[in-house]
């Protein structure tokens, strides 16, 4: 029979591993040997609590207390358990005993005060909380409760002082703000402005946007002095965000205008105003706002970026694109002269690059290496001025044990980047590699959970560049891979630092990063053209096939009709479901040319979130169809944005998938093929225009790949006119799914690259 010590250790091990049923039996076995051991009763109590058995937990804890009556933590725990089983009088007694035994033990003070407040014992609650504040003078909850008690006693001035302390210590707490606002409202009318400010922030932080708007509008309309500029800016930003959440565009525009007039030195407001107008499809208004930003803040990098590097979402005419690029290039040349001499200039410049990305540049259809390199040089200069130690080469960690591989992204969730890249982790050789994931987005879904499941370390990091960098450096990685440089400004800024000996980017956003501290671009053999090296600042790595191991999507049972999407049952439905910024105006004629030969055609497009962008795209279609004597309204359907299941249903209800030219569909093509849709594509000059081309090559179904725009039309027309051909292509696609999905060769090649890259690393970079 095991000795007593072994029984205790076994119970503790089972408890720590959350095997609660077995732990209960182990504790019971040990207690049969010695029922006078108070830690065993305490442990058994914790197990019962974890199992949702509070009454049994309280009984076991009572035994521990009886054996060790002068141990304050036992009385505190007893109080908590008695509160859980609705015995407040005995809980009060237990908490008071804990404090009487050890007045310096903080844990019982707050629950005791909360029980006293619930029973209306405000005088004793106040005394308890004042003792607690002496023990922990920086605890915001103590001051919050003290403010509540003082408010109940009618001591409004003292209540406000306590709540202001709580707010200072925890500024984002909606409940504190709510109580502070209510306290100000109970005071004379002179405090209405402060009340509206607090109540506005409280409502905003609980996403009650209508209430937030009401309070902030009243606050900003109330004349008053003594409000700091940074507080006013926060109020304006919260009001703007609430109005945007409510879809009140015109009011948002008006508030932005008022905000920059009221706070002309607020660079962030100027920058956000320009982006909001641009993202709303109001290009001329955005350009004017950018000019106003530079006039107000001529030395601000944020204002200069908003003005000089402004890129529209959509173009009316092809001629606009080279003009925009020329303006962009000229802007880059002037930005290189920005001053970084003072600490304030360096900090302001850093904040600017943390908010900026050249996201729409790659959608113009040109080689962006030169422009990206020029912007990367600016980013490098700003980061070097702020974090010189984090720009230096990193020594390779010792070659013992597994290689530590890090992945950093804003998109470790149900988003294209997350869905493409999770296969690298899913099939990782964990005997050779440790995986570290850094998500800088707080959103979580089933894809996030899978990233976490396949990581040795998964961290959702705060939106703070320095904190992110410190964590990555602390993990001493061998290789750091950025999954989505170019999409999210914060990722761009982090990627500009040197946080690992080897740093790479992949084709989550398939254009060169332009950043000097990114060593490699991880692309793939089937998508790159022969002159691919000319398109990248990084050293190009061609992984086999399409470079990602993409699991075949699970296609749900069909539960939508064509009518649900505004489509006719007798139509030949061409699905063209890319984001509208992928559609260049020089290719609009293609849809009209197909419609001329397939009169029953319907083209299904997905709406943009901004009405003005949809209107501009529809105007382009009207012009293209009108040029051949057709009405675009008879052929083109703008489908509202869809959830994932409905989107797959749209694929299933369509006949043919039309790829976009010069920026091809990656994830959308993989999902269309999973639904058996024939895919028509024409490979472009750059990798970003060759996704569907590479996917079809891997699948072995290449007869829907066109060599020119004219052939693209011919292939699409033939598929539309010949149902038998469509069915044959569909059957071949479905029969060859296994060639495409779940590829392991690319993962094996990636891991070989990791080992070789680390082996070749030398001070100063990668050879």
Layout of secondary structure:
Layout: H1 4-16, H2 20-33, H3 38-50, H4 54-67, H5 72-84, H6 88-101, H7 109-118, H8 122-135, H9 140-152, H10 156-169, H11 174-186, H12 192-205, H13 209-221, H14 229-245, H15 249-262, H16 267-279, H17 283-296, H18 301-308, H19 320-335, H20 343-353, H21 369-386, E1 403-409, H22 416-426, E2 433-439, H23 446-453, E3 457-460, H24 465-474, E4 479-482, H25 489-495, E5 502-506, E6 520-524, E7 539-543, E8 572-575, H26 589-597, E9 601-606, H27 611-626, E10 636-639, H28 644-653, E11 656-658, H29 667-674, E12 679-680, H30 691-699, H31 709-721, H32 723-735, H33 737-740, H34 745-760, E13 761-762, E14 765-766
Parallel strand pairs: 1-2, 1-4, 2-3, 4-5, 5-6, 6-7, 8-9, 8-11, 9-10, 11-12
Antiparallel strand pairs: 13-14
């Amino acid at each position: 029979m095991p000795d007593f010590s072994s029984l205790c250790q076994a119970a503790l091990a089972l408890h720590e591993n959350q095997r609660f049923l077995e732990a209960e039996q182990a504790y019971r076995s040990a207690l049969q040997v010695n029922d006078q051991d108070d830690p065993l009763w305490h442990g058994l109590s914790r197990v019962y609590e974890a199992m949702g058995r509070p009454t049994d937990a309280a009984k076991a804890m009572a035994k521990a207390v009886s054996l060790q009556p002068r141990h304050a933590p036992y009385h505190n725990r007893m109080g908590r358990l008695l509160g859980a089983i609705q015995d407040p009088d005995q809980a009060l007694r237990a908490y008071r005993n804990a404090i009487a035994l050890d007045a310096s033990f903080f844990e019982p003070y707050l629950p005791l005060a909360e029980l006293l407040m619930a029973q209306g014992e405000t005088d004793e609650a106040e005394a308890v909380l004042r003792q607690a504040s002496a023990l922990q003078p920086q605890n915001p909850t103590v001051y919050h409760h003290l403010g509540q008690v003082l408010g109940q006693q009618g001591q409004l001035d003292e209540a406000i002082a306590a709540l202001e302390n709580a707010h200072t210590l925890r500024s984002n707490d909606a409940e504190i703000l709510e109580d502070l606002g209510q306290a100000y409202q109970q005071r004379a009318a002179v405090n209405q402005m402060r009340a509206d400010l607090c109540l506005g922030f409280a409502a905003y932080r609980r996403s009650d946007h209508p209430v937030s708007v009401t309070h902030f509008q009243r606050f900003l309309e109330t004349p008053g002095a003594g409000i700091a500029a940074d507080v006013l800016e926060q109020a304006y930003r919260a009001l703007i965000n609430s109005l945007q959440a409510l879809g009140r565009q015109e009011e948002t525009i008006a508030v932005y205008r008022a905000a920059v007039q009221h706070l002309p030195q607020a660079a962030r407001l100027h920058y956000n105003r320009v982006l909001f107008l641009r993202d709303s499809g109001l290009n001329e208004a955005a350009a004017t706002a950018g000019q106003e930003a530079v006039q107000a803040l001529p030395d601000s990098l944020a204002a200069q970026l908003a003005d000089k590097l402004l890129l529209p979402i959509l173009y009316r005419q092809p001629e606009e694109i080279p003009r925009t690029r020329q303006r962009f290039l000229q802007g880059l040349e002037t930005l290189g002269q920005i001053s970084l001499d003072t600490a304030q200039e360096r900090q302001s410049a850093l904040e600017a690059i943390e908010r900026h990305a050249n996201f729409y540049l790659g959608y113009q259809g040109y080689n962006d290496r030169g422009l990206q390199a020029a912007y990367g040089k600016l980013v490098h200069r700003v980061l070097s001025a702020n974090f010189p130690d984090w720009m230096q080469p990193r020594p390779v960690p010792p070659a013992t044990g597994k290689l530590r591989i890090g992945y950093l992204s804003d998109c470790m969730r149900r988003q294209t980047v997350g869905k493409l890249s999770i296969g690298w982790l899913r099939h990782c050789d964990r005997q050779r590699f440790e995986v570290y994931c850094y998500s800088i987005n707080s959103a979580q879904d089933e894809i996030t959970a899978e990233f976490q499941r396949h990581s040795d370390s998964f961290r959702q990091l705060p939106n703070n560049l320095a904190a992110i960098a410190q964590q990555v450096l602390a993990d001493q990685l061998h290789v750091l891979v950025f999954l989505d440089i170019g999409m999210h400004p914060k990722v761009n800024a982090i990627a500009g630092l040197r946080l690992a000996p080897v740093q790479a980017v992949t084709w989550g956003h398939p254009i060169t990063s332009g950043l000097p501290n990114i060593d490699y671009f991880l692309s793939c053999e089937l998508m790159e053209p022969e002159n691919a090296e000319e398109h990248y600042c990084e050293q190009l790595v061609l992984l086999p096939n399409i470079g990602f191991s993409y699991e075949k999507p699970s296609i749900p049972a069909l539960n939508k009709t064509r009518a649900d999407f505004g489509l006719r049952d007798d139509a030949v439905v061409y699905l063209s479901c890319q984001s509208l910024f992928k559609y260049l105006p020089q290719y609009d004629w293609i849809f009209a040319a197909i419609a001329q030969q397939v009169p029953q055609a319907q083209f299904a497009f997905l709406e943009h979130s901004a009405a003005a962008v949809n209107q501009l795209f529809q105007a382009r279609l009207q012009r293209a169809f009108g040029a051949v004597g057709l009405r675009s309204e008879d052929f083109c359907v703008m489908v509202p944005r869809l959830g994932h299941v409905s989107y797959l249903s749209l694929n299933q209800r369509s006949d043919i998938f039309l790829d976009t030219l010069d920026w091809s569909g990656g994830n959308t093509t993989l999902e269309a093929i999973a639904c058996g849709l024939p895919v028509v594509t024409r490979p472009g000059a750059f990798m970003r225009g060759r996704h569907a081309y590479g996917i079809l090559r891997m699948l072995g179904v290449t007869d829907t790949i066109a060599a020119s725009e004219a052939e693209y039309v011919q292939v699409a027309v033939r598929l539309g006119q010949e149902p038998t051909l469509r069915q044959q292509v569909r059957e071949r696609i479905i029969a060859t799914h296994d060639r495409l999905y779940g590829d392991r060769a690319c993962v094996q090649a990636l891991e070989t690259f990791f080992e070789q890259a680390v082996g070749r690393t030398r001070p100063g970079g990668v050879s």
